[in-house]
Amino acid sequence: MTPIRHNHPDGPENPPGGGSDSDPILDAVRDCVLAVGVRRTTLTDVARRAGVSRMTLYRRWPDVRSLVGDLMTREWIAVATGALPEPAPGTAARTVLVEGLVAGVESFRAHPLFRKIVDVDPELLLPYVLDRRGASQEALLGLLVGGLKDGHADGSVRAGHPERQARALLLTVQSFTLSLRTMTDEADPELSSPAFLAELRGILERTLAP
């Protein structure tokens, strides 16, 4: 995957190492955040854990927030791409898209980094919910647009503006990802997380069907 442009104002637009699958510095900041949360993570902690100098970090990221932004981009894109099923011959693009989105919501909610941020530093996510799109959201929109165009081509997705449809889908799955636990009652099978994921699958199918 090509480097991804960052939309948050706190970091450089394309810092080296952003989005890398095996960057030891991003691995180190992930471990720090999982241990103590974002607010208590320092560049000194990250440098020590990664075995590099603080100046090495400062040359690439101005602060912890921009470093965590790159970490989230890497992790969220990996979750989204990993959730997309390999299409079997004859499988409709709509089926691949719907199953990938539902699996993605489930995987996001189970992801240790996502759970830690939601539990300890939820304000970190607010700008990307209320004010602007982040790099990972742009990447996800690209994946969705590609899947929608495949669906338009095979006739399994209703005709429409692919970018608008992709943004509407992302709004839908974001709400399930971020707010699902406010609506579930795990003691009631009809209001459990699996029941709501099944409801999401139905919503997406009806939204995309021709």
Automatic annotation (TrEMBL):
<dbReference type="InterPro" id="IPR009057">
    <property type="entry name" value="Homeodomain-like_sf"/>
</dbReference>
<dbReference type="Pfam" id="PF00440">
    <property type="entry name" value="TetR_N"/>
</dbReference>
<feature type="domain" description="HTH tetR-type">
    <location>
        <begin position="19"/>
        <end position="79"/>
    </location>
</feature>
<dbReference type="InterPro" id="IPR001647">
    <property type="entry name" value="HTH_TetR"/>
</dbReference>
<feature type="DNA-binding region" description="H-T-H motif">
    <location>
        <begin position="42"/>
        <end position="61"/>
    </location>
</feature>
<dbReference type="InterPro" id="IPR050109">
    <property type="entry name" value="HTH-type_TetR-like_transc_reg"/>
</dbReference>
<protein>
    <submittedName>
        <fullName>TetR/AcrR family transcriptional regulator</fullName>
    </submittedName>
</protein>
<feature type="region of interest" description="Disordered">
    <location>
        <begin position="1"/>
        <end position="24"/>
    </location>
</feature>
<keyword id="KW-0238">DNA-binding</keyword>
